Amino acid sequence: MRALVVRLSSLGDVILTTAVLPALKEAGFEVYFLTFRPFGEVLKGQPFIDGVIEVDRERLKTFSDIREFARELPPFDVGFDLHDVLRTKLLRRFLPFRFYTYSKKAFLRRLMVLFKPFKAKWLFVPELYASALKNAGIEVKNPRPYLFVGEELKEKVSPLVPENAVVVAPGARWKTKCYPVERFAEVVELLKKRGFNPVVVGGKEEKDMGELLERRGAVSLCGKLSIMESVAAISLSSGVISNDSAVVHMARAVKKPVVAIFGPTHPAFGFAPYPDEGAALTRNLPCSPCSLHGKTRCRDQKCFEIEPETVVDRFSSLIESR
To answer: What pTM was estimated for this model as a whole?
Structure first.
């Protein structure tokens, strides 16, 4: 039996699907994964995946593009749509096998933005993904993201990661989701005082932030690592401090404690670490959350008035409890 799992984007969401893929493999399926390039990098070589199909966004831009792409896919017995957006809904129409979808809770998330009391009911995305498998008769117990990092990759990255390293991730898809870099600089200084060695990860777009934090005592690897090299660096660290971004889920996937800082978004949306994985920091203001994805016009951003010492104290407590 061959199963096609579809999650086109984004990186963090793709990583979170790994919470349910082992159960699908254990149920006797050959597991193939369809995603946008370059997100497939994190899935290639994983023990619970038999094949990764990567596609460029431009390839699935129009109705006819999607229909043509569907014709080129190899045969499968069943599909799991863990994205359930217009592109994937159209793709399902052109594929001759049954698809199972997950309980997305998109309406509930929008209610959280409009009516703040709804945020009292926290979601967890791995459990939502598990609902798709449950619809197919496959139980997923204790869903947690997982990525295997090979020794060869660890050896390649290890010279860049000092002993007692703490990975700091100051970037995010939207600048409005970013804890102020000046406060991250204070976090770096506090970590140094407590005997940790801060290491900054991010893409080329975070290079300026990395250089600023490097001047405060961190080692910047921004723009120097591939996605899986970043995962490997995290696997060699003591833990992670990050904005609400894919780096949080990288840390969870390699079982490193993570402090996730939430501003305009909220942990209730489903992207917070479980208590056994780390901690979510939010001021939980009456106006929070103000955005579904973090893009906001708010200029005050009082939601980010979280003291750097609070961040480092929370991280230290995670380390001490392990």
So the answer is: 0.97
Q: Which two tokens stand for residue 4?
A: 């096609």
Cα 163 to Cα 152: distance, rounded to the nearest angstrom: 18
- What structural domains and CATH numbers belong to the chain? 2-135 (3.40.50.2000), 160-320 (3.40.50.2000)
- The amino acid at residue 184 is F
Name 26's Cβ contacts closer than 8 Å, sequence gap at least 6: none
Task: Encode the chain (322 residues) as per-residue pLDDT tens digits.
Answer: 999 999 999 999 999 999 999 999 999 999 999 999 999 999 999 999 999 999 999 999 999 999 999 999 999 999 999 999 999 999 999 999 999 999 999 999 999 999 999 999 999 999 999 999 999 999 999 999 999 999 999 999 999 999 999 999 999 988 999 999 999 999 999 999 999 999 999 999 999 999 999 999 999 999 999 999 999 999 999 999 999 999 999 999 999 999 999 999 999 999 999 999 999 999 999 999 999 998 888 888 999 999 999 999 999 999 998 8
- Burial readout 242-276 (b: 16 or more C-beta within 10 A, e: otherwise): bbbbbbbbbbbbbebbbbbbbbbbbbbbbbbbeee
How far apart are alpha carbons 146 and 170 in whole angstroms? 23
Please give the distance of CA 193 from its chain centroid, rounded to a whole number: 29
Token look-up 């569907």 returns: 70
